Each structure stands twice: as C-alpha cells, then as structure tokens.
C-alpha cells in the first residue's frame, strides 16, 4: 500500500489498542469515544483484509496478523513523536519578560495560560521588577511598565491608560453615595502611590480628602488584598482589580479616572518574532 493511501487514523487507533490492551484506554489516549476506536479498527480490518482481534470487546485477543503488524507501527509512531519533539525543542524560544510585580500577579499571570496554549513554542520567563528599564544593561527582551515616559532605547507599544478609582467590598459601600460618605470610610494607602486619593478627588472635582487616617501598606498588592478583605477603601488601577470586580469581590460605584499614566510594553530593539508575537497578544488582552 502506497504512503498516500495509508489509513493513518485507523493505524493510530490500532496501535493504541495493541499498546493498552483495551479499546477504552486507547479511546481515552486519543480523545475519542470507545465506539470511534472500534469503528477505526473494523475499517482497518476491511482495508487489510485480515482479522486483527478475536474475543469480546472487553477481552480482546490480538490475531497473528495484529502481532506481526504492531512492532512496525509502534516503531514508526515512536520515530514520528521523537522527530516532532526534537523540532519543537529546536524551535522553542524563550522570552525574558520584566513586569511590575502587582500587574504580574493580578493581570498577567492569570492570562498567561491563554498565550501558552496558543503559542506553546514560546516560553515566557517572568521577572517581577518595578524600576527603570535599560536594555543596554539588563537581560530582558521585554518589559511592562506604567508611567508617563519617555522610554528611551525601547520600541514602545501602548497597552491601556492607567485609570484609578476607589474600590472596596460591596457590603462596605452599601448606602455610600456621596463624597462625604465615601471619605468617612477607612482609607487604604500604599507607599508607592502616596497621593492617589488626592489625585483621584482632584480628577473627579471633589474637595481635597485630607489625610483621613486609615492604613498604609508597604506594597500595592498588600493594599489590594486589604480591600478584598474588607479593611477599607483603596484607590486602585482598574486593570489590577478587573477580575475582582467581575467576580463581585470588590465594587467601584464611583468609577475610575485617568491618571495621565499609561501601561506600555517596552521591547528591546531587534528582539525578534517571538517578542513581536507576545507584544501583539498583550495589546489584545
């Protein structure tokens, strides 16, 4: 039989049945139903003009023809599998990506599974970092940052504007409808954006909130976790609480306002096709 006429699906099904000894296990490996495997085996018997199995379906006994055919098929599929794996290893590309820590934890990492499923040959090696980017001194291929720029020495792709607003547990915000009632609640702060409340109130045309006491956190991530836990109200970038809002863990009844900053992908010049693919995916996410 010439190569172009080989019933490859039927041969795969037969080889899996021989290897596992059961059609059910073969079906599970191939991701099809038991009856589909049975049809493939019957079709192969018709093509070859020989009987391949005897006995009931749950106690299959390979025929002499089946035992003669199986070693060649197994060797052939093993060679194909090894060749494909070798090619994937050769083509696999690793990207070193630097991302601000809270954005990595709350936005990027939960979405990376989608990128890896679509592009299994591109490995993302993620490093959490918040400082300036200097591709001449740092080993990253890409960096994701938030700020106003400029971004010298990098190819820049804008992701989305930075929009922030007050968020808290829905039950904490029940009945809160005015600036006064919001500002009377415990406020959460972070050292990385100490003027966040003042900036947001100014953008909304509200009066200066004053110090208002509250609780200060060392890290943005800790402040957001405090808001989710019900400790108070935090001024948070929308992108960092998007999943919490969708899940109902947080509410933002007063909306978000632009800060003038923007989230960007900074790409090392000449970083190649894999970096371009990842950048395009980020821009669409």
UniProtKB/TrEMBL annotation:
<keyword id="KW-0238">DNA-binding</keyword>
<feature type="domain" description="HTH lysR-type">
    <location>
        <begin position="6"/>
        <end position="63"/>
    </location>
</feature>
<keyword id="KW-0805">Transcription regulation</keyword>
<dbReference type="GO" id="GO:0003700">
    <property type="term" value="F:DNA-binding transcription factor activity"/>
</dbReference>
<dbReference type="Pfam" id="PF00126">
    <property type="entry name" value="HTH_1"/>
</dbReference>
<comment type="similarity">
    <text>Belongs to the LysR transcriptional regulatory family.</text>
</comment>
<keyword id="KW-0804">Transcription</keyword>
<dbReference type="InterPro" id="IPR005119">
    <property type="entry name" value="LysR_subst-bd"/>
</dbReference>
<protein>
    <submittedName>
        <fullName>LysR family transcriptional regulator</fullName>
    </submittedName>
</protein>
<dbReference type="InterPro" id="IPR036390">
    <property type="entry name" value="WH_DNA-bd_sf"/>
</dbReference>
<dbReference type="Pfam" id="PF03466">
    <property type="entry name" value="LysR_substrate"/>
</dbReference>
<dbReference type="GO" id="GO:0006351">
    <property type="term" value="P:DNA-templated transcription"/>
</dbReference>
<dbReference type="GO" id="GO:0043565">
    <property type="term" value="F:sequence-specific DNA binding"/>
</dbReference>
<dbReference type="InterPro" id="IPR000847">
    <property type="entry name" value="LysR_HTH_N"/>
</dbReference>
<dbReference type="InterPro" id="IPR036388">
    <property type="entry name" value="WH-like_DNA-bd_sf"/>
</dbReference>
<dbReference type="InterPro" id="IPR058163">
    <property type="entry name" value="LysR-type_TF_proteobact-type"/>
</dbReference>
